[in-house]
Amino acid sequence: MKVVRGLSGSIAAGLVVLACVVVGAAMIGARRGFPGPGAESVGWHIAIAATAVAAQIYSDRKRGAATFVVAVFVLGAATLLLWTQWWI
């Protein structure tokens, strides 16, 4: 299960980095007067990143099937974010 926790932890960390990039792009866009990601997109990125990190912390403290279920949840959250905010 170490591999599963490591993979979901990497995804959660990637979501945090992505949220920081989106927030930075929104701030730069607002300062320079060009369109950037809107408040809805920023909110989604922050919410999903926070949820994934919380789920990962839970997974790191538990053992057994809970680890796998939370890893699938983190992967699903990342997929949902990328599908709704980046793909469409």
UniProtKB/TrEMBL annotation:
Keyword terms of this UniProt record: Membrane, Transmembrane, Transmembrane helix
Domain of life: Bacteria
Claim: Transmembrane helix is one of the keywords in the record: yes
Bilayer-spanning residue ranges: 12-30, 42-58, 65-86
Official protein name in the record: Uncharacterized protein
